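We modelled the chain as a single entity of 276 amino acids. Its sequence is:
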Amino acid sequence: MNIVKKFKELKKKYRYSLILIRELVITEFKLRYQGSVLGYLWSLLKPLFLFIILYFVFVYFLKIGAGIPHWPVSMLLGIVIWNFFAEITNGGLKSVVSRGGLIRNINFPKYIIIVSSAISASINLFFNLLIVLIFSVINGVPFTFQMFILPIYLIEILIFGMGIAFTLSSFYVKFRDIQYIWEIIMQGLFYASAAIFPLSKVLDSHRTIGQLMLLNPVAQALQDARKVFINPDLPNLATLNSNILVPFIPILLVVIVFVFGAWYFKKKSPYFAENV
């Protein structure tokens, strides 16, 4: 009875927040595709077109990934996961400023803005994963129960991205240059995460660099996602290191980034209305 009572109290306490999150997500989707003929289909077409271009350049012409089973599907999964991370962080960066009118006129928990942006990115991810699933079937990727572990790594990306979004959005309220700094960081992080090329290519020539790359939570989650969903023979931190503590380093970084981001966002949120 106590559990039911506490659940009802929590539901009542956060009812307004949940309604506001839902409305913000719906509004964001409407504004994103307003005036577009294809509308929500662009959520599927953008990663698909990017995959086709990269497939012909990297797989068909440059033969990158040759000899690695189901590499085209692995590359598509990498693109989808990277776009998920990029959408959370890039969308979160401007989310507070873009909701300036709402912040000035309504008193509500400001974290809702970041959460709604992350939910929108998660909805896009769901549809993009359907494309990955279709290509997996066409490419003959075998079904295994390990595939059900995939959501764990997607949640890791979600938490890491939200932690960064909390921090970036707080800085962006006062320092608009943070947008350009983050764009430069994202360019480097894209290649450092091995989203469009096999990590094994780096490991074969520079093993230490490959291991350092995997300490990046995005690269680690992406590589582990490929391992459980597509190719169990792919290397990851656990198989490359005898020290059982090393695979927990990216997880620790995710926790630190999220906790710091949430704390800093909460600290600065009372002053958002004065600066947006």
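As a brief sanity check on the tokenised model: The first helix runs from residue 2 to 13. The chain has a mean pLDDT of 87.
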